[in-house]
Amino acid sequence: MNAIAQEIGIDQSGASRLIKSATAAGYLVMAASATDGRRREASLTSAGRSMLDQAHRWQEEVFVELTTGWSDKKRRDFQQAMTDLMDRSYEMDA
Fold first, then answer.
1. CA-CA distance, 28 to 51, in Å (whole number)?
2. Signal peptide position in this chain (predicted)?
């Protein structure tokens, strides 16, 4: 729960509610950790993987629409800059 909460930027109770809802909807399955029985791990079901794939396609479509008229180089440079910012934010959290 803590790792998921941190990754999506919400508190643990909010992450717990989201995980319970996603599990009830059939998008996630929870199981005991193979390395630490006190911990639980979330995994996507096939329905969850399908939803994630659809979300990624939608994000790409919106990005293309938002950057209409941009050169391929400008798109790549922007994507790289955003990736660099995300990487830096993860380093700051560590």
1. 11
2. none
In angstroms, the CA 2 to CA 60 distance is 29
Q: Phi then psi for 54, rounded to 5 degrees? A: -65, -40
Which of 42, 77, 20, 61 minimizes the C-alpha distance to 53? 61
Return the amino acid letter for 8. I
Q: Which of 21-25, 36-40, 63-67, 72-76 has the lowest mean pLDDT?
A: 36-40
Question: Whole-prediction pTM value?
Answer: 0.72
